Amino acid sequence: MRSADSVIAAPDTAVVQALWDLVTSHRDRLATEAAPGTLAQSRAAAGERARVIAELTETHATALSGLLGVLRSRNLDDAAARTTAVELAVTALVELRAETERDRAVAEEPAGQAFARLADSLRPMLRYCPVRLELGPPDSGRPLAADVAHAARAVVRAVLLTVLEQDDVSRIHVGWYLAGNELRATVRDDGPGELSICALGPHRVGERLEVLGGRLDVDAVPGWGTTVTATIPLGAPETARVQPLGSLGARELEVLTHLARGHRNRLIAQELHISESTVKFHVANILTKLGVASRGEASALFHAVA
Fold this sequence. Notes:
By secondary structure, the protein is an alpha+beta fold. The protein has helices at residues 10-32, 36-72, 78-107, 111-122, 146-164, 205-211, 250-260, 265-272, 276-290, 295-305, and strands at residues 108-110, 132-136, 143-145, 171-179, 182-189, 215-221, 225-233. α8 packs across α9 (276-290).
């Protein structure tokens, strides 16, 4: 342990200075080399919020000054002063609520609107591609925090780019589902079913989700396709659902029963006298509604509550 009066040798100070330069240069690079689109959006949002806050402050100050002026006036009797003060207060409240809504619009985004923005950004990616894009918007108008909506869009775009690199993909389904206190964004394809989570590494999908406490799951079935699910928490965990299978329809429960027995899609199709593509459709809906990422998780949940 060195005291305040200790003399540090020149070689030691050189090492400390080099480490300091390394840290500061790295911080500067992070600030100056951020992704242009993300950086511009972040700065725009921060600037807009600062402007809204400034306007809220001015509105508060104006309202209080007006009320003080009424209370101090010697030209108004009590009745007139009360009437004028009420009018000023009502006007100020209307303006404050309007500004608050504008501030909320910067910080939050309705789930449907956020998904619509995602859809608009995905269509150009497939404009000249033979792959058919299917969209499953959320059935909830719940507002999403801006960072959650932005991260979900970024993750889906990154996953879609990876999925499109596969051969023999003719259809991709992108869907968002809000269950409990989580947003689940899924990208499902009908490709070779050989995609792994490692293939998404270059796009830093895991890092984006980790910042928000989310996770990424990949369920690949050779010959049938891959389902990639990004789960992002929306807030504090809620208590467990009393009836976790209550959201499933009659046919979906039948399919889940076969999944729990370890049956594959072909056998399920034969047993239920439906096509294999219909089975795949039901399986995808089951995973989404139960909030699980794989057939194994769905089977385990079935056995847990059966």
